[in-house]
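Weekly sync notes, structure subgroup
Attendees: PM, AL, DS (notes)

Item 1: joint prediction request from the bench team. They want all four components modeled as one assembly rather than separately. Inputs as received:
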Amino acid sequence: MVTITHDKTTKYSNKMSKNIYAYALVREAIAKNIIEKKLTGNLPSERELCATYEVARSTLRQALGQLENMGLIFRKNRSGWYVCPRKLKYDPMRHASFLQYTTEQGFQPSTVLLSKKQIKPCKEISESLHVDKNTSLTSIKRVRSVDGRAVVVEDLSFSNAHLPEIEKHDLSLSISILLKNTYKHHKVLYDISVESCCLFNPIAQHLNTYDGALGLKVTRIVRDQNGVAFEFDREYWRHDALMIENNAKLDVFIQHLKP
Amino acid sequence: MVTITHDKTTKYSNKMSKNIYAYALVREAIAKNIIEKKLTGNLPSERELCATYEVARSTLRQALGQLENMGLIFRKNRSGWYVCPRKLKYDPMRHASFLQYTTEQGFQPSTVLLSKKQIKPCKEISESLHVDKNTSLTSIKRVRSVDGRAVVVEDLSFSNAHLPEIEKHDLSLSISILLKNTYKHHKVLYDISVESCCLFNPIAQHLNTYDGALGLKVTRIVRDQNGVAFEFDREYWRHDALMIENNAKLDVFIQHLKP
DNA sequence: GTGGGTTTTTGGTTCATACCAGATTTTTAA
DNA sequence: TTAAAAATCTGGTATGAACCAAAAACCCAC
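Output from the run, pasted for the record:
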């Protein structure tokens, strides 16, 4: 049983006081308990929280929804609300494997290959990779988890011409290591885009979230040293699972700048 | 008066059919109208839409909320819902001014300086800039708009030691041009982080949105050629206003790689 | 015409209720 | 003992009603 600190004299639904809304008061009260670690793991049930804060369920759910947007809590379908684990720091520009940067940060990573097939590129991909609409590409879908929590669905498309027989490798492992070891692509370049998005089924289901949940979409075009694009990635992340980080590579730059 | 295509035989609130929910059907119907440009500018009022789709207002608002998360529509406080303009493409790594990259993309930019003061750094800033907690920094807040729509609130802190008399310049103009012209910082390096966040008052108010709205937080540490950090930025963006983009600088890299 | 007050319209907040669907736990029967 | 069935708990969906706050439209006196 979880005990929540709660000033019993505060009437959360009393909108007269200070022109502050009930949902905002409840939101702040729960946020405070989470930040001060008085609340960990799973939250009390919605109906319990309604009783605690003396608000209707829809008001409570408005507060919970905002805490979810803040990345403080998340839900498991029809099972309950949970305090979010810390975010994964992720540098889409860095040529590091998922395995590497997750373990560096103390997470237990895992990957499941959902599908592997030959596809014809959509307009966006054919334009990005400069290939004809009828060119066959190797396409894979994967779900990646940290500490048993699914955080990203990847949708990767590879140019067969550039990466011969790629479909014969174990594609549930690190692609960046495969590029390095098998195809000798030690230097690659990325075009990255990041934007806020909504996660819909079936992606939402793979991430154990709901249809319409908040996400971050990372798109990446991978090029070789000559600027030839050979890989097109779409990554759909749980919005609460990651923080994009890109650190200036001082050592490299300074080297170049020294006479 | 806006006319909406709508199959009158579809009962949106009939949950029996196909196990698809009313809010999802309404969401898809409105999304379709927006994508097909049958719906532009402002949407009909919520009560009208309720009548059109035969759902309760709370159900409709759930659909509108998801369309908002998708970046398809946005709201002006108590005035109505509007179809989102296209997103601004923004490369936080590029040393380009807001004026420059907005006009390049055909937007009309403007900036309002909200405040300018001397502050003592918080823990995060003092650690990032490697300055003592009692060092005075010049701090400014600005709101930047494109086509009259406020899209980002900036919170910038500068090291006075590194940028002497910075407080005497017009800080509603481009800082990157100021750095270039006045302080001769032609080459700078950035540490960037991007994450999903919630926008609360007063930031939400500056962006003409509501307390708890979705946002993207961009944090940036600016360093000189020697790696010395002298500026700390926090940017709070409307989540529907931007797309982070970073393009591989092929020309530069290829130059380096050529023998 | 026009400025200022009034009315109307709009979204924003909150409530109470009901029932559904899936996860979880408990009970029951083989 | 264990697997299947039932009960229970949880969040998810949906309704409709009421009232509030601010924006927008309107109107009228000057």
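Discussion: Confidence is low (pLDDT under 50) at residues 1-18, 250-259 of chain B.
Action: AL to compare against the crosslinking data before next sync.
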